[in-house]
Amino acid sequence: MKLARGSFGRTTPPSQRAMEAGEAIALMKSGRAGPAMILPYGNGRSYGDSCQTERGILADMRSLNRIIAFDTESGLLTAEAGVLLSDIIAKAAPHGFFPPVVPGTQFVTLGGAIANDVHGKNHHRRGTFGCHVERIDLLKSDGRSYVCTSGSNARLFQATIGGMGLTGLILSATIRLMRVPSLDVEETVTPFGRLDEYFDRAEEADRANEYAVAWLDQLAGGRNAGRGLLLAGNHLEGGSQSAGRTGPKLSVPFQPPINLLNRPFLTAFNAAYRWSRSRGASTRRTGYQGFFFPLDGVANWNRLYGPKGLFQHQSVIPFEAARETIPLLLHTTREAGQGSFLTVLKRFGDVQSPAMLSFPRPGYTLTLDFPNRGQRTMALLKELDAITVDAGGGVNPYKDARMSPGTFAVAFPDWQRLEFMRDPAFMSSFWERTAMRLKSPERSAARAAG
């Protein structure tokens, strides 16, 4: 046994026990894994407690890091669960392929991308990561391995995609990559002065581009409230097909004793960022790492939020409520005196995930990052949850560290389907905090509290 790393947000205590993937596989095959004993752990990039277990043991899957097969004609790639997306990109890029969906970091494992059904800047065209999974090889605590596809063990396949690692150990998976002319991206930057301008342009930006996302100046109020930049992109013809160096160029080498991302810094940063991206030509060529993974260039950047860590709040708001609710979420945050270092607004499309439990749905998704200031921050997050639920939306469970069982149940009424498919030997702190409380005799009180 060894001490495991915690979550990327660092607002929950790290799990105290962990075992290597080989040990976990042997335990599973022996049939001696007890109830709520195990939880798979990828590269620790989840913000909340879906990758943590208070009373169980983490199965560290990072040693399962082989790419098993890659068909350079079809783009089908089979790899072990601990392979990083950065490794997949490096393998596939020289042959003209790229993952069809990437999150905001390339340093997540294949198993983690499946278990969290991650999404990217092109949900309007490609849906979630799970839409491109062809096969999952899953080991369950009964000692048996299951081949899961849309046609074989289909319910287990649907539960494992977006299933937070609760259905068993993903040993390997086959995904279908996307053919691209190059890794480079032609990026178009369009400034907007208020949110209505963004909403007026967002649908057309989705139709015209593979990728589209908006950066917001979250602190701007008054006549500048809602200003930001609409960033759209497409893979460039004749660009680079080499992944190049993928490691971070800079690092935060130690934990500062205070939060460095305070309001004066954020105000100056937002002004400088908006000015630098708005000046000059509106269209430019950019490397894929700068476009998809800008924060990957700084190792341990989460330390900038201070020793108490950070909370990320990601909501999805239905189309019909977005023009009223998104400004309200931003206004509520400013009124609470909280600043978000990275504020992102995207439009989700209607591509259906095969997952039983998946966060994206038609509407707009707003992401806010907050340093942990204790009860002040918790009160704000609870208020943001209430606004989201009142609008008919949901909060992302894959990035959460504190939502109530009631908030979870309202946004994900089919959670019982995943609970039915959960391997009894698997449990996370998130699932124990939400779903298991909903199952308890006090579930009615828990729903009311949410």
Please describe what this structure looks like:
- With 450 residues, this protein is α+β, with helices and mostly antiparallel strands.
- It has two domains: 65-179, Uridine Diphospho-n-acetylenolpyruvylglucosamine Reductase, domain 3 (2-Layer Sandwich); 185-407, Alpha-Beta Plaits (2-Layer Sandwich), CATH 3.30.70.2520.
- It is built from 15 helices and 20 strands.
- The chain has helices at residues 21-30, 85-92, 110-115, 123-126, 154-160, 195-208, 263-278, 288-292, 319-335, 375-390, 405-411, 415-421, 429-433, 435-439, 443-449, and strands at 18-20, 38-41, 57-60, 67-70, 76-80, 97-98, 133-139, 145-148, 169-176, 178-179, 185-192, 211-216, 228-235, 250-251, 283-286, 298-299, 310-317, 344-348, 363-371, 394-395.
- The chain has an eight-stranded antiparallel beta sheet with strand order 15-11-13-12-18-19-17-20, with helices on both faces. A five-stranded antiparallel beta sheet has the order 4-5-9-7-8.
- Strand 7 and strand 8 (145-148) form a beta hairpin.
- Helix 9 packs antiparallel against helix 10 and helix 11 (405-411) crosses helix 15 (443-449).
- The two termini are 37 Å apart.
